[in-house]
Amino acid sequence: MVNQVIFFYFAVVILASAILTITQRNPIHSVMFMLLLFFHIAGVFVLLNAEFLAAVQLIVYAGAILILYLFVVMLLNVDRESTAARANRFWPWMAGFGVVIAAEVILLIVRGTFPSEAGQQPMRLAGSGVKELGELLYQKYLVPFEVASIILLVGLVGAVMLAKKRASD
Amino acid sequence: MLDMNQLLHYVYTLGIPVAVLLAFILANAVYLQLMERKVLAHMQGRLGPMRTGWHGLLQPIADSVKFLMKEDIIPAKADKWVFSLAPFILLVMAFGSMVIIPYGPPTDFFGLLPKKVPLWVSNLNVGILYVLAFSSVGTYGVIMAGWASNNKYSLMGGFRSAAQMISYEIPMAFSIITVVLMSGSLNLSDIVNAQTDRLFIVALPVGPVAFFLYLMSGIAETNRVPFDLPEAESELVAGYFTEYSGIRFGMFYMAEYMNMIVVSLLASIMFLGGWLPVQILPHTLGHIAPIAFINKLLAAIPPTIWLLGKLYFFIFFYMWLRATLPRYRYDQLMSISWKILLPLSLGTLLVAAGMKQMGWL
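YS: structure for the whole thing
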């Protein structure tokens, strides 16, 4: 019972802060609502006994949007952002696609069957699950894991190459 | 839904520990400032606060009253919401980290209680990651304060602090991972229990190096001398909290001391064995009579006293540094982190992993 109430609180705040993140005109406030969003998602992970994922959610995402926050503060002109046009002339098309995708998702949820109530099925692991996760990542799924890290590395090298000045300049 | 027994269970495992922890936090928040002023004063051949109470013992109460009574000014051009929220974020994150710290083994207080009660609020299995996560979120408070004040000194302070905290988090995380590798657990109680045979600070060759790395980056994370560039008063007035006044200013002060306590507690738990008593060379000289007697005497001191003793030793060390060292220049600060501490911490981790694999650790 208590868990359901807490889950309901998390769900409401997640939805509300997600909507506020994209509707706020001030980019700084957007980032703050995003921080709130990530915190509550970490809370849902804790409810599902996935403590490790909750901690990683905060370290990776909160740490990552910290950088985003800095970009917002340093690169964007907050005053100009708040008066600029919110969309270009393609917005009816984009809104149409959005409605179609949302309708599909809703249809799938309504017609689908779920093994248990969403968000009510905790992980059943001894301890924190770190050991199990490590064994899966580094033994069973070693190759996909390494491929994923190589893709990240490619992204990093690409960013450095873009930022690098040519010798002729 | 909740019957009486369950309610009592919550009172014993949650209510009382939280109340005691809150009292501990608040007492420290006000009295550490007096301790700092006294320590600095005596190191500089002064007396420090003497007028309010015996040797200034009531000074923190007078200061707190002053903080509460002063006018809380929010600059006209500031972003009001972000400006008022920033000190809370810092303070909540600092308080939150203290929740998972074990202050001693389960105890029945010398037989006073019918059964053993834990001396922590929550014994999280991923305790140490939780502290890392909270300390990284605390940085937001600093940047938010810097940006929302709409003041160039504050903004510079906020940026400096962000760069510093991001840079020093990496060597800090690697030194913590080294400890996790040595103990084989992310749980803080397990890390303490893994040091029963020998404390990690004397686990040669990686222990002392990891301890040094952790201490350096811990001082940088808390923005203390010699890494206090975000609030360098000779360049930036007071850095990110220049525009704050009244109780919000007091909250920044409290958060700084809370962060010092968290870093010191973690240093004691991870490297000095937390609540375990320090012993004189237990394996080699343990049979010689005077040393065995001293060891017995040291072991008789209650565990929590040991932990608090180690904690206040580190706090004193912080203040000692402040009285001794000058401030680094900003580019020096960055090159220390990226060119010295990061390679050193990676090397330590590598050696520790190799030794663990060979079974030497």
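YS: worth flagging: Chain A has seven helices and no strands.
IM: good catch. Also The mean pLDDT of chain A is 80.
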